[in-house]
Design goal:
Number of helices: 2
Number of domains: 2
Radius of gyration: 17 Å
Strand content: under 5%
Distance between the termini: 33 Å
Helix content: 10-25%
Structural class: mainly alpha
Order of helices and strands: EHEH
Strand order of the largest sheet: 1-2
Number of strands: 2
Shape: elongated
Length: 92
Amino acid sequence: MLGASMVRSFEEKPTLDGWVNAGFCIFEPGVLDYLGGDECVLEREPLARLAADHQLAAFRHDGFFFPVDTYRDYRALNDLWAAGEAPWKVWP
């Protein structure tokens, strides 16, 4: 997979410094074999098993990242834009 690195292990929300999983996932139909019933939580056993089976890859993003999960996050990003300090603005 061009530009991707294989994930060696996966743990949901560990307390550590380093890279985090954020964004979105793209799956092939075979992922359905890793899912259980209605109580299955993707971020627990299925992703851990996919990683253990060398079936999970990730793309590293070294640029600016800031989640927008709350209205406070939204306001913080808009404040950066209004102040002319938006790190994601890469055009003149």
